[in-house]
Amino acid sequence: MSETTFSSKAYQPMPKPESDAVNPSLSMPVESASAPSVASPVSSSRPRKAPKPKGLNLATLVSRYGTSEKCRELLCRLRWNNGPQCPRCNDSAVELETDKQLFYCKRCDYQFTVTAGTIFNDSHLPLEKWFMATLLLCEAKKGISAHQIHRTLGISYKTAWYLCHRIRAAMKEAAKPRLTGTVEMDETYVGGRNIGQGHAAKHDNKEIVIGIRQRNGDLRLFHASDVKAGTLAQYIRGNVKSNVDVIITDDFASYPYAARLAGVPHRSINHSGKVYVMGEIHTNTVENAFSLLKRGIMGTWHRISPKHLAAYLEEMEFRFNRRNRPDLFIDTLRHMVSAPVLTFEKLTA
Q1: By Cβ atoms counted within 10 A, which residue in 81, 135, 189, 249 is the most buried?
Q2: What is the pLDDT along the chain (349 residues), one digit of tens a residue?
Q3: Every domain range in the chain assigned CATH 3.30.420.10
Q4: Distance between CA atoms of 268 and 280, rounded to whole angstroms?
C-alpha cells in the first residue's frame, strides 16, 4: 500500500506557483536568522584598462570597398590632399570623363591613374584583392604567408608572393624617430639547423637579428652581419638619441665597448649567471618582440631566405609599432600610395 502511494506521488504534476497578486507575501523580502547576510560588492581600487579601439575587419572591408571605384576613390583621398597631381611634373591635373578613371596633365600631356608610380603600378590584380591582402597582412599578429594569401584570395602563388613583398616594401620607413628614455638592446639568431657541435657551432647557418626597443615605445629590428662592438655602435648611433637615459643589454662582451663608442650610458644584466631581472634592469621588453618574430618565422613563414630577411623584419616592426592603432589598414595604404615602384626584376635580382 505504501509503495502504491509513493508511486502515485512521484508522477503528480508540480502545483503552479501563486502570482504576486494572489499571494502578496511573495513580493516581500523574507529575512531569515539562519541566512547569511550578503555584503554589498566592493569596487576594486585597480583602474580598469581602456577598451582597445577596434580596427577594420574583413567583412566591413568587403562591404565598404567591394568595388574598384570605391577603392580608387579611397586611394585618391590618401594620395592627393589638394586634388590630383601629375606624377611626372607635380602639376595639377583634371579627371577625364571615362570609365577607367583617368587623369590628364595639360602641362606635360600625360594621362595617368591614381595607381601610377606607386606599389600598385602595372598590376592586373583587382584593387579589391589588393585591399583584402593588405588587411590580412597588416592585421595578422605573426604575419601571413604567401601560400595562405594564395589560398584565401584564389590567386597564383607567384602573384601572392610578389604581392606580399610589394606590401612589405611599402612598410619600410625612410625616416624613423630616434629612441629615448630607457632602451633595451639584444641580439638573436634565426635561420637553419645547427651544423656541428659546441658553443660556436650553434650559431652556424644562422642569421643575426639585432633588436632595439624603447620601453613603452617603438621597436627597431635589423639584419646584421656580425655582433662586433663597432657594428653594434653604428646601430646605437643611428637609432638612439645621445641623451638617452640608459641602454640595457645582457652580459655579452661587445655591448660595453659598443656603448662606449656610441657615447651612451649602459647597464647590463648577467644572463650567464642566470639573473634575468634586477629591479628595472632587464631585457624582457625586447625579448618579447623576439618571441613574436620567431613565432612568425617558425609558425607562419617557415622559411625565409637571408636575402629577404630585412623585408620581413620591416613588416614585423611596422605592424608591431602600430598594433594599438585602429587606422592600421588606412595607414598601410597611405604608405603604399607614396612608396616607389618595386618591379619583379628588382625583387628577384
Answers
A1: 249
A2: 434 333 334 434 444 444 444 444 333 344 444 444 444 444 445 556 566 567 789 999 999 999 999 999 999 999 998 899 999 999 999 999 887 789 999 999 999 999 999 999 889 999 999 999 999 999 999 999 999 999 999 999 999 999 999 999 999 987 899 999 999 999 999 987 766 666 655 666 789 999 999 999 999 999 999 999 999 999 999 999 999 999 999 999 999 999 999 999 999 999 999 999 999 999 999 999 999 999 999 999 998 999 999 999 999 999 999 999 999 999 999 999 999 899 999 999 8
A3: 182-313
A4: 11
- Grid coordinates representing 267 are 647597464
Question: Residues near 119 by Cβ (< 8 Å), separated by ≥ 6?
Answer: 166, 167, 169, 170, 336, 337, 339, 341, 342
How far apart, in Å, are the Cα atoms of 263 and each of 126, 240, 247, 252, 259? 51, 11, 11, 18, 6
CATH annotation of 182-313 = 3.30.420.10
- Measured distance CA(46)–CA(26) in Å, rounded: 40
CA–chain centroid gap for 70, Å, is 25
